[in-house]
Here is the input.
Amino acid sequence: MTAPPAAPGRTVRPDRRALARALLLTWLVTAAWDLLCASALSGLAYRSTFARLWQGVAATALGPAALRMGAAGVAVGLALHLAVALAWSALFVFALAASPPLRRVVARPGGALAVACAYGPAIWLVMSLAVIPLASGRPPTFGFRWWVQIFAHVPFVTLPLVFTARRALHSSTAAELGR
Here is the structure.
């Protein structure tokens, strides 16, 4: 059942079902694109392997033993990746659903690009300065790879995240308005 059409000038928030669909789609697209790009970057630029990358992610929470866990370490790393992608996707989708000004900004492609350019570095700053040090007990290292990550989060994480959420929530809102 959909909500009645909105009065002129009134914005409509998506219902819970539409919000859940938008979150699921945003999460899956973001997680898949980031997984592919991070794996390619790791292999092509850093001459590492798929397994070593995701074991390294697992080592953030489990310590260096994760690097010797084989497939189990890879699975833990992938699970952590999915959880982190879900958290950042949920934060954005819920903010977008709750904020008419943010929806107006991302409605324009240039606005969506600007939001992605701000959200990507913000995610990396929170992850590298707070989440990873709290999980690993180690302070961040501000080397070349740290800087690659701050910029890579825009095309690898937030462009797909913002544009997918934008489209998914716009579709659900338009459906509620009877368009």
